[in-house]
Amino acid sequence: MLKKKISTDYKLADLENDTHRLLFTWAIAHLDVEGRITGNPREFSALVVPLLKNINSEQILDFFADAVHCGLIHRYEVNGQWVIQYPKFLKNQNIKPEREAKSIYPPENNSRELRITPENSAQIKINEVKLSKEKLSKAPPTPPKLNDGLFLNQETKETLAQLLTKYPTFPSAKLIGIAIGQKKHPDAILYALKETLAKANTNPGEYFLKTLNRKSGDLYADEHTKKSQEFKADFAGIAEKLKRIQ
């Protein structure tokens, strides 16, 4: 049952977008007696938004990272099973446990909880996107479209560390998760981190996204132009050979 105070919950308002707010609130109806629900993005989608085909697993992973960052949920793993815990569920619900079915999900005790920190945020998001794609395809693991090295090389680590020193509240996990989910150009992500660090501004998160979007578009446009020129050159070569044959 939703209470009126959810309308003035600043943590809920701080979520990145209305899709994340919808996922958070709709999931409440599916929580078990302990306030738990599956943390597997594919299962979560089938349970909470089965008719909304425009919401994919990557968007749900973005929601998980966003909600964890805002302190609305806990996400942890026990023996390979991902679980979502709504920490304030019991406080906000008037239920009689003896009348409810027992939870099928294990508690957080002895779990590997998803703790997002400046040191692990980027790599956690990459690993989760890779794992989701591999499970969805039910095929042997394949290299992700984004280059892991982008987040593992020393330059990127140092840039992100400096950025978090300058802006301690910079939501690196959420923003890099958005970049991955929206398939931004890998080079644009590093470029945007450097530009955000170099420019003095009051809203580094907004500046990062604007810079990322602009640079990613430019890089993809350049690649498209280059491929078009190569295609035209190849076509011209073929046409010249056909003339000679005739």
List the helices and strands and how they pair.
Blueprint: H1 10-13, H2 18-28, E1 36-38, H3 41-48, H4 57-69, E2 74-78, E3 81-85, H5 89-92, E4 112-113, H6 121-137, H7 149-152, H8 154-166, H9 172-181, H10 186-198, H11 204-245
Helix pairs in contact: 2-4, 3-4, 4-6, 4-9, 6-9, 8-10, 10-11
List keywords for this structure.
alpha+beta, Arc Repressor Mutant, subunit A, 246 residues, four-stranded antiparallel beta sheet, single chain
Task: Describe this structure as you would to a colleague.
This protein is of the alpha+beta class. The longest helix has 42 residues, at 204-245. Helix 6 (121-137) runs parallel beside helix 9 (172-181), helix 8 (154-166) runs parallel beside helix 10 and helix 10 (186-198) packs antiparallel against helix 11. The chain has a 4-stranded antiparallel β-sheet. It has 11 helices and 4 strands. A hairpin with a 2-residue loop joins strand 2 (74-78) and strand 3 (81-85). Mean pLDDT is 76; it is low at 113-121 and 135-152.
